[in-house]
Amino acid sequence: MTALMLSNVNKSFGNVHVLKDITLEVEEGEFVVFVGPSGCGKSTLLRVIAGLEDASSGEINIGGQQVNLVPPSKRGIAMVFQSYALYPHLSVRGNMTLALKQEKQSKAMIEERVSIASRMLNLEPYLDRYPSELSGGQRQRVAIGRAIVRKPKLFLFDEPLSNLDAALRMNTRIEIANLHRALDASMIYVTHDQTEAMTLADKIVVLRDGRVEQIGSPMELYNNPANQFVAGFLGSPSMNFLPEGLLGDGGQNTIGIRPEDLFLADDGPLAARVSHVEKLGGDTNVIAKVHDQSVTARLFGQHAISEGQELRFTYAAEKAYRFDADGQRLR
Ligand SMILES: Nc1ncnc2c1ncn2[C@@H]1O[C@H](COP(=O)(O)OP(=O)(O)OP(=O)(O)O)[C@@H](O)[C@H]1O
């Protein structure tokens, strides 16, 4: 069954058209990530799905039911916000049980659900603490616990990890992946962070300026981007784009080469002058100028390369992407 279906959803604030004809599906049990640059409409789309904003037109279907006119609390969804949005005057247990109490669920059922969720999230020692007595990571786990106990048909996460430091982000990312596996729930997750998108998603939806640019599995999008925007958006460091003319091919198109597909070669076609080197230990990122174009090469291992050095790079022809003047992929 389909957990969520959006058909031609539009949203305008006054005369600002923010979401443009969004059509997509989330299958039951699927983990779908929305990515895109700041302001492209990710949060607005999530809020329209949750019912916190009304769609201006189009249809929203959750678990087989059209929900355009159904209030948020009746949509069978639970949302986890970046800001956690916990009630400061309620304990962890109080925060986790509030919605169930409001739904007048039985005491035994509430106990059982809190017990299962707090065990899953390692929150058992903290049930009687208040949010102010918890770390950022613990607060985020409470916010997730509060969503889990409601057994929603669909989980919505709005940049849940962006307030955490790098190490905690990684741990929490792994916890969310484990949680998804354990709950077998349908989840939609908004993020800026492409590592989160690539590692968590069954399916990524790339948005740009309120439109869907491409939908696919992380590897489909990485290996087969439909256009220059998607090619440049996924991958870190980003894909290099060079005018075809620079590579001696004479055409007017743009050639895309990923940093990991550039290699040092004395007779390589790309003559470059190194402008910056990032030594990461396992890898070395070399940022260099080819004529006036900046390119980044990600070389495996450690290299004695320094600023100002002249190098030549090569690449395998089958690893090069071609885009026309409008940024559409040429095959
Ligand atoms: N209530 C509102 N009234 C008017 N414009 C709004 C409102 N909410 C959002 N917008 C506009 O809609 C666009 C999309 O905003 P949204 O917050 O959905 O983007 P986003 O992709 O989530 O961005 P970010 O990654 O920066 O959080 C922006 O141009 C924003 O200014």
TrEMBL record:
One of its GO terms (cellular component) is maltose transport complex. Keywords: ATP-binding, Hydrolase, Nucleotide-binding, Transport. The keyword ATP-binding applies. Gene3D superfamilies: 2.40.50.100, Nucleic acid-binding proteins (2.40.50.140), P-loop containing nucleotide triphosphate hydrolases (3.40.50.300). GO terms for molecular function: ABC-type maltose transporter activity; ATP binding; ATP hydrolysis activity. It comes from the Bacteria. It is an enzyme of class 3 (hydrolase). Its EC number is 3.6.3.19. Residues 4-234 form the ABC transporter domain. InterPro entries: AAA+_ATPase (IPR003593), ABC_transporter-like_ATP-bd (IPR003439), ABC_transporter-like_CS (IPR017871), ABC_transpr_MalK-like (IPR015855), ABC_transpr_MalK/UgpC-like (IPR047641), Mo/tungstate-bd_C_term_dom (IPR008995), NA-bd_OB-fold (IPR012340), P-loop_NTPase (IPR027417). Belongs to the ABC transporter superfamily. This is Maltose/maltodextrin import ATP-binding protein MalK. The lineage of its organism: Bacteria, Pseudomonadati, Pseudomonadota, Alphaproteobacteria, Rhodobacterales.
